[in-house]
Each structure stands twice: as structure tokens, then as C-alpha cells.
Design goal:
The N and C termini lie far apart (78 Å). By secondary structure, the chain is an all-alpha fold. The longest helix has 30 residues. The protein is built from eight helices and no strands.
Amino acid sequence: MSTIRPVRSQTEKDSEPPALHLHAMDNLKFIRETMESAASFTAVPGWGQVIIGVLAVITAYLANKQTNSNYWLIIWITLAILSLVISLISMQLKAKVSKIPLFSRPGQKFALSCSPPMLAAAILTLSLYNSNNFSLFTGMWLLLYGAGIITGGAFSVKVVPVMGICFMVLGLIAVFSPATWGNAFMALGFGLLHIVFGLIIAWRYGG
């Protein structure tokens, strides 16, 4: 003898709670995203900064020998490009050793926050070059590089924004100093500060 079962309406089906495994997946996703948002970008390379600092000191020596302003500018721009390559390679190596993705959410925030001041520095460099105004390069570069390090450092370890503040202070002094001191300020900033803070980062945060 057959039995008669009540037919469940579509509304009843929709009102059913989602399966437990879906709840668990959502919770894990929320926890992972929260942890990534709260985490710091720790792949800032200490030894990479030390290498860049040493190259900057050598570049300051070579730039100080130049009597042609165009050659002076080419030397420093070459260092900037080389430093970018060294930073990317050393960050990738540190991230690989630490077994963390380089472009995790903190890494993305670090890169996006650094970019606007660096882009502004590139645009102002072109503008100052077109107006043949070389005296402001040193102060402008130090100030905007420091601003980029501070904004990006907000998503990294605490020593990074401190380094940015030091760059900005040095840039502020350079702006009101004689232009003939430019190479000395560049050596102090992109050379000495990178070496000192690079050693601190390498010592305290593993390379």
C-alpha cells in the first residue's frame, strides 16, 4: 500500500539553512581575508637595501666628478632603475625563502601605496629637466622617495616608515641647502640610510 507524503513548496526549500560545509568555507574565507588584511608586508629586503646603499655611495662619487649636468642626471637615473631591479629580485628571493606570496594583500597595499609618490617624482624629474632646473633634484627625490616609503611602510614592519621619515627630513634640509651639496645629500640618503636600515631589517626581520 502506497503512502502519501506532503510536497514541500519552493519557499520552504529556499528557507532552509545552507549546508554546514558551506558555512565552514565562508568562515574560513573570512578568517583568511581578515588575517591577510591585518598582516604586515615582511618581504622588504634588508640585504637588497644594503647593496643599493653601497651602489648609491659609488654613484655619488662618480656623479661628483661630472661637469655636465646631463651626464649627472643619467648616472642617477641609471642607479634608480638598477635599484628597482635589485629591489624586485631581492623581494622575490626573500618571499620565496619565507614561503609567502610576494603579491599577497599586504604586498599589494605596499606597492600601491608606494606608487603615487614615485610616479610624482618621475613626472617632476621630467618637468625640472625641461626647465633646466637641476638644483631641486636632490631635495625633491629625497622628499618624494621618503613619502613613498612612509605610505608603503604603513603596511610593513615598523622600521620601514621610520626610514621614510629620515629620508624626508634629509630632503627637507637639502631643499634649503646649496645645490653644490647635492651629491653629499644623495650619498647620505640613498647610500647611508639604505645601508643602516637595510642592516637593521636584515638583522631583525631575517634577510
